[in-house]
Amino acid sequence: QSWWRGMSYCLHSESHLDTGPIYVRENGKLHVVNQGAGGVQNVTPKTRPFSLFSRSFSVELCMNGEDDRARRQRTDHFIFTYTKEGNLRYSAKSLFSLVLGYISDNVDHIDSLIGFPEQIAEKLFSAAEARQKFTEPVTGLRALQKFTEAYGSLVLCSLCLRNRYLVISEKLEEIKSFRELTCLDLSCCKLGDEHELLEHLTKEALSSVQRLLLKDNSLSDVGLRRMTAPVRVLKKGLENLLVLDLSCNPKITDVGIGYLLSFKKLNCLDISGTGLKDVDAVIKRLQRQIGLVHSKVPLKEFDHSNCKTEGWAEQTVLQWEQAVMEAMKPQDNLRSRAAALRFYGKTHRIEEVVKCTLVEPETKASGNLQFYKEKVQNCHLPLKKEVAGSHKLKNNKKRALAEQERERTSKQKHLCLTVEDWDLLNTY
Hints:
This is Leucine-rich repeat-containing protein 42. By secondary structure, the chain is α/β, with parallel strands linked by helices. The chain contains 17 helices and twelve strands. The protein has helices at 2-13, 65-76, 95-105, 118-130, 139-151, 165-170, 172-176, 196-200, 221-233, 254-259, 279-289, 314-328, 332-343, 361-366, 383-410, 412-415, 419-426; strands at residues 22-26, 29-33, 40-41, 78-82, 88-92, 158-160, 183-185, 211-213, 243-245, 268-270, 292-294, 370-373. The relative contact order is 0.08.
């Protein structure tokens, strides 16, 4: 057993090293070597704790943002699932998913998306929306503009901001970035004549608007004059408007209705609750000049049921509203302080969200003033009758043109372009 004597010599020569117990198997039996005695014992191995580090050794766990992001990126590359047996199983994500996630994290650095496939762009928009990239103050606007410049109505074709005046004030630039909208609902927002969003309505980016709801917005004849100036003079702006709701704006008078006559394509109009003086004259004027007939019953186009937000950015608008509502929630200390002030009579102000009702007292007082354009139906009458009636139509047209000319000369100061109109148009 020369090998055994060699091992004993090695153990005695390096006895200063604490290598722990050493086990040797010989003839089918397990032996433990005691370094102190240098002998071999035929015993059953006992579990002996073996310390890898000394007692004075300590470990400090340090984590920073970069390590956390790196760890998240490593875990984002895999999809973790559980089997039926409860075992954890992971599979690698596709290269497309990894690239999509990386670009959505840095979507504000994209130079342009013009010419990029729409199917991939929609997935990219959804990925960035899930990360709430469009709610960020500066980078969100820059990223949203890249999508709206390239895809227009696909990002948003209909926008409903009814009663959401807080969203308009907080996200005005983002709202102005939307292009090619066909429906815009700004009801009950109290915008007034001087609001920047009303000026934006006359821009070329919103010339595609066909349905515009401006109910209860404190509008007057001045606001209508500014809103219709591009259409009346330059034949631009809201020239494709089909449905217009101006109800519950008591400052709109007969003069303001005259500015609406430039909307030749208008099919439905609601001016209930306005400050009209001669209602019968206005009804006749609308029917004679743009073919709108007074409706005896409320029209479905103005019940606010068909207007909703539609497009890729539908969830983005909801995120804006949630962020605004979270910011408006009073803190606990401020809430208790306000309650104490009310209890001691220091304040009598009750802050409540202003809600717009669909039926206003002004509307009930003035009655239903909704107008629609009768559709021209194909007439199957004999040709002679049509020819006979054509003379009457010509005479009626002549009389209508003569009356229109008299109205134009008598109210020239309201319909002609003034100095203020030119100053306004120069700003567009």
